[in-house]
Design a protein that fits this description.
Helix content: 10-25%
Structural class: alpha+beta
Distance between the termini: 94 Å
Number of strands: 19
Number of helices: 4
Shape: flat
Length: about 350
């Protein structure tokens, strides 16, 4: 049976949530403030053991506040009651092999996410004016995303062919000289905390784009930080995730070595013996605001780094504005071409 934990104020026993601006938990009723460490004691939590399995993918639990029976999927570790709105943490989803070692608490608020969405108009004249409206926001959710962090050593040798091309003219003859070179680079590089999204629920391209996170803000995991947010457990294990991190490290290592071969007109890799060594692995939860927007009967997903505020997503273009911009660009280019041709013609006839 799974245990459901609902964080309570230590002063008045009201539901309490994490406040990203304060970096603490603040009670909306008595205004008391607490640190995550103060809420860590399980005796200060109300525990329910009424959860029972429904099938392999979904489970139910009883909300400890209103008693409602809520269904959630097997990857969700923290959720909300759709009736009373209070958050609940399903403890056994984050224990054993699913227990994170570290977490970066939210620093950005829901209001910051709304502000970032409205700010998409800045510097983007082709974005429809009506798109950047708060009324188009269907849902904003703060989610702790499971990530694997890998420390990886890359070492080996790359051999490449390079060319240096020189051109010159003598009289009416133009000459080209090409010199060929054999190049070798050997070395080792350490890559610290390469992140890999541990959940298939979230778009990897979006998760990669909101990087980097500043890992100096990592703190020891405490389930109290999940209060007021959703959280997921990983469904992509360490071994599978390491393959992504390994390929990323090898690609970066290769690019670094190839970029060190400077001064050549062209470079072609002949062979490489680069290999990786996994040095350390951490399983952590990182904060992300997910913003769902509905515009003209189409849904758009945006994500904001809950620590740094980096905001990404697909933006629609105003077709009318795009056509006008294209026509103006063509006209301006055509006029410039006529002017340049006229100048060249005048110079040639003088």
């Amino acid at each position: 049976m799974s245990k459901v934990i609902d964080n309570k104020c230590l002063a008045c026993n009201a539901p309490i949530k994490f406040n990203p601006e304060l970096g603490k938990f603040k009670c909306e009723y008595c205004k008391s403030e607490f640190t995550a460490e103060q809420l860590k004691d399980m005796e200060n939590k109300k525990i329910s053991t009424d959860e029972e399995a429904v099938d392999d993918k979904y489970v139910t639990y009883n909300c400890p506040d209103c008693g409602a029976n809520i269904i959630t999927d097997e990857e969700t570790a923290a959720t909300f009651c759709i009736y009373c709105g209070n958050s609940s943490i399903i403890k056994n989803r984050l224990t054993g092999k699913f227990a994170p070692s570290k977490i970066i608490p939210f620093k950005k608020t829901k209001e910051d996410a709304i502000k970032a969405f409205k700010g998409l108009k800045k510097g983007r004249p082709l974005v429809p004016k009506s798109f950047i409206s708060e009324k188009n926001i269907e849902k904003i959710t703060g989610v702790y995303i499971p990530f694997w962090l890998f420390d990886i050593m890359v070492d080996g040798t790359i051999e490449a062919k390079g060319t240096k091309v020189k051109h010159w003219s003598s009289g009416n003859t133009r000459y080209t000289k090409t010199d060929y070179y054999e190049m070798t680079r050997t070395g080792s590089m350490e890559f610290d905390r390469i992140p890999v999204d541990g959940s298939t629920k979230f778009n990897d391209e979006i998760m990669n784009t909101i990087e980097p996170f500043d890992y100096k803000d990592l703190v020891d995991y405490n389930h109290a930080y999940l209060s007021g947010f959703l959280a997921e457990k990983y469904n992509v294990d360490e071994k599978e995730s390491f393959e992504f991190a390994k390929n990323r490290a090898l690609s970066s290592g290769k690019d670094t070595m190839m970029n060190d071969m400077i001064g050549y007109s062209s470079k072609t890799e002949k062979s490489n013996t680069l290999k990786t060594t996994e040095q350390k692995t951490e399983y952590v939860l990182l904060p992300v605001w997910m913003v769902n927007v509905k515009y003209n009967d189409k849904f758009y997903l945006f994500a904001m780094n809950g620590q740094t505020g980096e905001f990404v997503g697909d933006i629609p273009l105003d077709k009318k504005k795009a056509v006008i911009a294209g026509i103006l660009s063509f006209v301006i280019t055509f006029i410039i071409a006529i002017i340049v041709s006229y100048i060249i013609y005048k110079v040639g006839n003088n």
